[in-house]
Amino acid sequence: MRSELDYLLRIADSTLILGQRLSEWCGHAPALEEDLALTNVALDLIGQARLLLTHIGTLEDAGRDEDRLAFLRTQDEFRNVTLVELPNGDFAQTIVRAGLFAAFQCELWHALASSSDTQCAAIAAKSLKESRYHWRQTSEWIIRLGDGTDESHARAQAAVDKLWPYAAELFTDDEVDREAVARGLGPAWSTLESAWSAAVLPVIEEATLSVPAKTPFRSRGKQGVHSEHLGHLLSEMQYLQRAYPGATW
Amino acid sequence: MVTREQAWQALEGVPDPEIPVLSVCDLGIVRELRVEDDAATVVITPTYSGCPATEMIETGIRQALASAGAAQVNIEQRLAPPWSTDWIAPAALEKLQAFGIAPPGPARSVGGSAQPIRFVQTHPPCPRCGSRRTVRLAEFGSTACKALYRCSECAEPFDYFKPI
Asked: How far is Cα A192 from Cα A124, in angstroms, rounded to an integer?
């Protein structure tokens, strides 16, 4: 059971944390249209996370709903991939990170739509439609930025160089993946790599960007081993509920 | 006591908070209605996962059915099959247009991991003057489900309900 919950929390937490990061752009984006785009994508992601967290709370059957899971867990209990907890950086870094993850979500949702867990499958089928819009929007921007001015190209390349090593975690399996496969709950994430590469690499190429060479670096957010950034993010995200326990709108 | 007809009529009076000319029935949000004596059970489906109107719609449904005489209102959310703009009633598409929102084109079924077509715009006709010389300004308009367009013919902006 714990392993099943971990598998789902990896997806829910990654979605929630990226939603939180994108919402930080609210009121600060370089153009009004992009402000709306980033925050609307954040809204979609938070909605997806809510559906999954609610389902996880039901499966766990320990009296935790979506809010308790989102606002009252500690850093080491979060199972998001490290990629999504990194600071936004500039617009290029924000877009490249959101794009890499959106492309991943498309493959993951597509595979999860045939999960043995019917609620999971339903969430996946619904979320896939939204993530496809996210991928279209971010991939168009990656191409504009990469194949843009000298400045936008330099920033986009710097973003790819910085973020690419964190993508390796997305495709590294462990016992949680193996158990999920055995139960028919979902795919081993390593099986998503070739489709993800087939989607992402042509976009990188069209953007006249290059990807850095592979290294042995593996971030381990999925296993609860986070960078120094998650703590700061959670202290903001969870502040109100922790300061005023039980507060509601 | 409430009859099925009364309950259905009550539901048809529950507007979408963002697009008040449309009811939750017009949008295909209401999937099922069961009435047994005093209890009404409504099965709804959310449009977008993060749609902030979902909770308002649920409140609206509860109030409408209570006013219609239901002593007990149960609302169930059903996610599968996922909501599509194809479920919007044809008469409702006309209401959208009259309200100034370009109605959605047909939603193409999502085929596996088919890659999106980039940099190609749809050109919905302007809801005011009907011209197809329309330009997309932004992927997201006043809400996540709509994109922002401007008509090159009459120069007015409008929202386009995105197919999904």
From this structure: 15
